[in-house]
Design brief:
Elements: E1 21-32, E2 35-47, E3 52-56, H1 63-70, E4 78-87, E5 98-99, H2 105-111, E6 116-119, H3 123-126, H4 133-144, H5 149-162, H6 168-171, H7 181-193, E7 199-203, H8 211-228, E8 231-235, H9 239-245, E9 248-253, E10 256-262, H10 263-268, H11 273-280, H12 321-325, E11 331-333, H13 340-343, E12 360-362, H14 393-396, E13 399-411, E14 425-437, E15 441-445, H15 452-459, E16 467-472, E17 475-476, H16 482-491, E18 492-495, H17 509-519, H18 525-538, H19 555-567, E19 573-577, H20 585-602, E20 605-609, H21 613-619, E21 622-627, E22 630-636, H22 637-642, H23 647-655, H24 695-699, E23 713-714, H25 725-733
Parallel strand pairs: 3-8, 3-9, 6-7, 7-8, 15-20, 15-21, 18-19, 19-20
Antiparallel strand pairs: 1-2, 1-4, 4-5, 9-10, 10-12, 11-12, 13-14, 13-16, 16-17, 21-22, 22-23
Helix pairs in contact: 4-5, 4-7, 5-7, 7-8, 17-18, 18-19, 19-20
Length: 735
C-alpha cells in the first residue's frame, strides 16, 4: 500500500504544530418551547494545519452542533454558555488567535466563507433557488475580496471547473433545481472553496448520494486539500468514509467527546464501549450470512437535563453501578505510536502532532481490551444468532413478481403548452426482465438515475409501464380492472425513502396507520384500532405513539412507522425504496434486523432498492444491478459480490469505502458521468465508461447470458471471470 497522498503536501514537518483550531470546554444550550437542551457539554478538540479530523456519532450526539458553533451559526435560541473556540487567523487575542465563541458579528462575517468554508448537509436547501449558480459562487468573492464583478465571475467559473463541474460556463447560468444532487454538492463545495480558506467544515457532504458520486466528491475534497493546504473537519455517520479520508477521529455521544484517537488506532483497537458498538453494527462486520446485526438498544439522551454518570450507561451491556453514578473523564494514553505494529501498514505516515502527541483518549470506566472483545455478547439482541430461511424451500421457488421486457418512457417538456408531435422522450426503464420468488429478498442496486425507483413504482402499480408485462402471482396487473387493482394493492405495498415526507404532518400516527384499513373497508373502528396496536408491537414502538405526530419521532422511529403502514394490509410483497439510506449505522442495524424478523415471521417478500452495497449484500438473496435503465447483471447475492461479471458491477464494488483504514486499495473505481437517458449510447450503454470496451460494444447491444453458473446472468460481450481486486489481494497475501 502506498503512503497517504496527503501526507507529503498537507502535513507539517515532524514536531509539535500549533493548532489551527482549538475547542476548549465548549458548552452550548438551546432554549425554546419552554425547555433548554444542553446540546454540548464540555467539548475539547484540536485541529492542526493541514489535518483532517472526522467527527462521528449517532444523530443528536452533537456532531453538527460542534461544527456550527465554530462559525456562530447556532439555531434560534442557541448560545455558547462557556468555553473558547480559538482560530489561528490574524486574530487580536493575546495568544494570536481569534476566540470565535466571543467574537462579535462583524468578525464572524469576515471569517465565514473567507478563511473558514462550510459545506452544509443538504445543498438544495442551502442554495438560493432564485439566484444563478454563477452568482452564488461569486458572492463570497464580492463580499471578502477586492475584485470586480467580472473577476469574481471568472474566478467562480474556474472554481466550478476545479470541483469537476461538467460544462462550467453553461452551469453558471443554471439555477439549483436544474442540477442533479451530485452537481449541487459540487456547487456547495465551490462556494466554500472559492476564497481558498484555511479550514473546510464539511457536514455530511455525501449523505444519501450513490457510491460513485460519493467517491467523486470525496476524491475532489482530498485533491483540493492537497492543492490548497487546507485543514478539514468532516462530520459524518459513514464509518467507511471516516476510515479512508481522515487522520484522526472524535467519537461524540450525548454532547461530549467519548473517544479520540488516530484513525488507524481507533478502528484497530476501540476502547470506549460506544465506539465498539458502532463498529460492531456495520453490515460488513456481520459474523456470517443471514446473521442478525449487532444493535445498540435505546436512544441517545435528549439532554433536556444533564444525565448522571456515564451518558452511555443506560445502553451499555458492560455498565456497572459506578457508571450510573460517576461521570468518567476523557483520559487514556498519550504519545502512542500510530505505526506499523498497530496498523499493519509499513508505509503509513503519522499525522501532525498536537500538544500531547499522538493521543488515544476515552471516557469509559470499563474500556475494551481488544477490537473483538464483547462482540459475542454484543449490545443488542441476538448478535450471533442466525436467522432461519424465511419460508420453506418449495415455497421459495414459487414466482411471486415477474417482469418481462418492461419499459417506461417519459416525454420531455410535456405540459399544456408543449407540442407533442416529435417530442423527445427519456427512457427511465428499458426492457427489464426479472423474477422475484416468494419469501426472498431481491436487491436492486445502481447509481442515481438508473431507474431503480421507477421500477419499484411500476411493481406496486403507481406507474403504468410503457411496454412489457408485470405479473403478480400469475396475473397481469396491466389487465386488471379498477376494482381488481384496488384489491391487488392490498398485496403489494411501498416503503418510501423519505418516511417523514410520505406522512401527513397534520395527522396523528394512529390515523395514519388506520388510513389503509379505512380505504380498503377492512373491519370496524375497534378492529382497526386493534390492528394498529398490533402493528406498533410488530415494529417495536409503544402503543402510546398513536396520539403523537410524525415530527415528534426520530428518523429511525419514523422509518419503523413507514414499515408499519406498509404492513397494515398484510401484503405479500413490500417494495422498500432506500429505507435506510440516511440513518445512523446503529439505527440502520435495528431496521434491517426488524425487516428480516418480520420476513421470517410473516413470510414477506422484499424488493429492496438501495445504493448501499454493504446493506444489500447483507440482506438480499438475489441481486440485480441496473445501469441507465438496463439490468446488466443478476444472480445470487453471494456470487454477484464475490465474482462480479459485468465491469459496471466490479466498478461499483471497487468504489465503495471499506470501513477499515488498513484495507488494500480497490481496483478501478468508476469514473465519468452517466450519459443522458434521453440519448443513450449505441450498443452497450456502459461502453463510454467501461475500461474494457471494444468496437463490438458500440455496434451491438449484449444479450444476457450465463457464462459461469446457472442463475448468474450478465449482459456483457466480455464478462470478467476474475475476482474483485480486494479479494485478489487477500488471496495473494495469504490473509
Amino acid at each position: 500500500m502506498t503512503a497517504d497522498p496527503l501526507s507529503a503536501t498537507t502535513r507539517p514537518p515532524s514536531g509539535t504544530a500549533a493548532p489551527l483550531l482549538s475547542v476548549e470546554d465548549l458548552h452550548v444550550e438551546i432554549t425554546g418551547h419552554g425547555r433548554t437542551v444542553h446540546a454540548l457539554d464540555g467539548v475539547h478538540l484540536d485541529l492542526a494545519p493541514g489535518e483532517a479530523l472526522g467527527i462521528v456519532g449517532e444523530s443528536g450526539c452533537g456532531k453538527t452542533m460542534t461544527a456550527l458553533s465554530v462559525l456562530g451559526l447556532l439555531p434560534k435560541g442557541g448560545r455558547i454558555t462557556r468555553g473558547r473556540i480559538l482560530f489561528q487567523d490574524r486574530g487580536t487575542g493575546a495568544d494570536g488567535a481569534t476566540d470565535l465563541a466571543a467574537a462579535p458579528g462583524p468578525v464572524l462575517r469576515e471569517i465565514r466563507g473567507n478563511t473558514v468554508g462550510m459545506v452544509f448537509q443538504d445543498p438544495l436547501s442551502s442554495l438560493n433557488p432564485t439566484m444563478t449558480i454563477g452568482a452564488q459562487v461569486a458572492e463570497p468573492l464580492l463580499l471578502h475580496k477586492e475584485v470586480t464583478r467580472r473577476q469574481a465571475w471568472e474566478k467562480a467559473e474556474e472554481t466550478l471547473r476545479l470541483v469537476g463541474m461538467p460544462q462550467p460556463a453553461e452551469r453558471m447560468r443554471n439555477h439549483p433545481h436544474q442540477l442533479s444532487g451530485g452537481m449541487r454538492q459540487r456547487v456547495a463545495i465551490a462556494m466554500a472553496l472559492v476564497c481558498e480558506p484555511r479550514l473546510l467544515i464539511a457536514d455530511e457532504p455525501t449523505t444519501a448520494l450513490d457510491v460513485t458520486t460519493q467517491h467523486q466528491i470525496l476524491e475532489l475534497i482530498d485533491d483540493l486539500r492537497t492543492r490548497l493546504g487546507m485543514a478539514m473537519i468532516l462530520v459524518t455517520h459513514d464509518l467507511g468514509v471516516i476510515a479512508k479520508r481522515v487522520d484522526r477521529v472524535a467519537v461524540m455521544y450525548g454532547g461530549k467527546v467519548a473517544e479520540r484517537a488516530g484513525v488507524h488506532r481507533l478502528f484497530a483497537a476501540p476502547r470506549h464501549r460506544y465506539t465498539q458498538a458502532l463498529l460492531a453494527a456495520l453490515p460488513e462486520r456481520a459474523t456470517g450470512e443471514r446473521t442478525t446485526l449487532a444493535t445498540i438498544p435505546g436512544l441517545p439522551p435528549t439532554l433536556v437535563t444533564r444525565p448522571v454518570g456515564c451518558r452511555f450507561a443506560p445502553r451499555c451491556a458492560f455498565a456497572s453501578e459506578r457508571c450510573r453514578t460517576e461521570e468518567p473523564e476523557l483520559s487514556g494514553e498519550a504519545g502512542l505510536s500510530e505505526g506499523p505494529e498497530l496498523s499493519g501498514e509499513p508505509e503509513f505516515t503519522k499525522g501532525p502532532e498536537l500538544p500531547g502527541g499522538a493521543e488515544h483518549r476515552y471516557a469509559c470506566f470499563h474500556p475494551a481490551e481488544s477490537a473483538t472483545e464483547g462482540r459475542a455478547t454484543g449490545h443488542g439482541r441476538g448478535t450471533a444468532a442466525t436467522s432461519p430461511p424465511p419460508v420453506s424451500a418449495p415455497a421459495a421457488r414459487e414466482p411471486l413478481l415477474d417482469l418481462t421486457a418492461v419499459t417506461k418512457r417519459y416525454a420531455l417538456h410535456a405540459g399544456p403548452f408543449a407540442r407533442r408531435k416529435g417530442a423527445r422522450e427519456v427512457g427511465a426503464v428499458a426492457g427489464v426482465s426479472l423474477t422475484v420468488t416468494r419469501g426472498e429478498t431481491f436487491g436492486i442496486v445502481g447509481e442515481s438515475g438508473c431507474g431503480k425507483s421507477t421500477l419499484g413504482r411500476m411493481a406496486v402499480g403507481l406507474e403504468p409501464p410503457t411496454g412489457g408485462t408485470i405479473r403478480f402471482a400469475g396475473r397481469d396487473i396491466g389487465a386488471l380492472t379498477r376494482r381488481e387493482l384496488r384489491a391487488h394493492r392490498r398485496d403489494v405495498q411501498l416503503m418510501f425513502q423519505d418516511s417523514y415526507a410520505s406522512m401527513d404532518p397534520r395527522m396523528r400516527v394512529g390515523t395514519i396507520l388506520r388510513e389503509p384499513l379505512v380505504i380498503q373497508g377492512i373491519g370496524d373502528r375497534a378492529a382497526q384500532e386493534r390492528r394498529v396496536a398490533a402493528l406498533l408491537d410488530d415494529v417495536g414502538l409503544p402503543r402510546g405513539a398513536v396520539d403523537r405526530y410524525p415530527h415528534e419521532f426520530s428518523g429511525g422511529q419514523r422509518q419503523r412507522l413507514g414499515l408499519a403502514r406498509a404492513l397494515a394490509l398484510s401484503p405479500s410483497l413490500v417494495v422498500a425504496d432506500e429505507p435506510v439510506s440516511a440513518l445512523d449505522v446503529s439505527v440502520q442495524a435495528q431496521i434491517l434486523n426488524l425487516m428480516r424478523d418480520l420476513q421470517r415471521d410473516k413470510g414477506l417478500t422484499y424488493l429492496f432498492i438501495s445504493h448501499d452495497l454493504a446493506v444489500v449484500r447483507h440482506l438480499a438473496d438475489t441481486v440485480g444491478v441496473m445501469y441507465l435503465g438496463k439490468l446488466v447483471e443478476t444472480g445470487p447475492a453471494r456470487d454477484v459480490f464475490a465474482r462480479p461479471l459485468h465491469p459496471y458491477t466490479r466498478g461499483l464494488l471497487d468504489t465503495v469505502n471499506a470501513p477499515d483504514p488498513t484495507a488494500p486499495a480497490a481496483g478501478t473505481p468508476l469514473t465519468g458521468e452517466t450519459p443522458s437517458a434521453a440519448a443513450p449510447p449505441s450498443g452497450c450503454r456502459f461502453r463510454t465508461r467501461c475500461p474494457v470496451a471494444r468496437a463490438r460494444c458500440a455496434e451491438s447491444e449484449p444479450e444476457p447470458t450465463e457464462p459461469t453458473a446457472p442463475g448468474h446472468r450478465v449482459a456483457c460481450h466480455f464478462p470478467s471471470r476474475r475476482p474483485p481486486a480486494r479479494e485478489r489481494s487477500v488471496t495473494r497475501d495469504g490473509r
